Amino acid sequence: MHYFERRPWDLKQSAHTPIEVYKNRKFHRREFLKSMGIAAGIGLTGSLSGCSRPSEGEVSKAGAVEPLPEEAKSIFPAKRNPKFEYGRAETVQRDAAEYCNFYEFTGGKDVWRYVENFEPSPWSFEVGGLCRKPRTFDMDDVYASFTFEERAYRHRCVEAWAMCVPWTGFKLSELLKDVDPKPEAKYVAFETFNRPDEARNIVSRPDYPWPYTEGLTIDEAMNEMAFVATGIYGEQLPKQHGAPIRLVVPWKYGFKSIKSFVKIVLTDKQPATYWNTILPHEYGFEAIVNPDIPHPRWSQQHERMLGTHQRHKTVKYNGYSEYVGDLYS
User: Fold this and answer.
1) How large is the average pLDDT for residues 313-326?
2) Arithmetic mean of pLDDT, 280-287
3) Which of 58, 82, 160, 314 could form a disulfide with 54 if both were Cys (CB 3.0 to 4.6 A apart)?
4) What DSSP letter does each residue of 111-180 carry, written as one string?
5) From 3.20.110.10, 2.60.40.10, 3.90.420.10, 3.40.50.150, which CATH number describes the 13-328 domain?
């Protein structure tokens, strides 16, 4: 028998709409919204913590990072790889920056409000485990060592919202080949930072298994779609998108694309991962986008686009079957 653990965004019962309000037909929508402190018209990109939407300047300033050194600035903008295109409209940059998940900071979507104290520079990460050439990379190493390009990827959240954004980065396989995996390496484990003084949700949810962790099979990690991103929209990653470096695996639900990682370990055992540890019956290790497998609490048949709220039918593997379908045959 599975238990349900209340997540950060689940309301306490005391905050639920009173039944007498729900049943009162004279209680108009505008009055309801006013009573909840929510302005009419707020949708997937609106703020739920206030009555007005923040300015674009507020959002961009909150997520701003230190400028790159001169020798690395030429990375942006990178040449776009024409092999990957959305097949639908690109999400407006401001909409993507204003509405996202980053659980170290908050269980809500207004991550940009809580990242001010986060310091993504200087940054380094180690790669080790079952490999012949383990090493530690700093961001100077990253910009000097790998082939950067821009990829237009669709992104599908397990919560049924979606976006289309251009990432700047390089193939994960390049990074792994650099450390020379051993034949017995079957999985790749990722771990992000654990800084309670910079990320408030680590403090407010001490019962959760920090640091955030994720994992792929070695075959998934070596697939050409698996991408390491250091930029978005032709610029450095802002803090709320996982500055300075993150994983992007667009055929899987978004929680698999770990942000701001500090460690990669090649292993012969399936690693424990954050959401799979907390709610294994709701968030599987594989987590492939699949409309035919519903989440226990909602359908995965459709998705809504950030900003436009346009509704699309969900496509298996998020539309990337030709690239990754053979991994699961």
Assistant:
1) 98
2) 97
3) 58
4) GGGG-TT---SS-EEEEEESBSS-EEEEHHHHHHHS--EEEEEEEE-TTSEEEEEEEEEEEHHHHHHHH-
5) 3.90.420.10
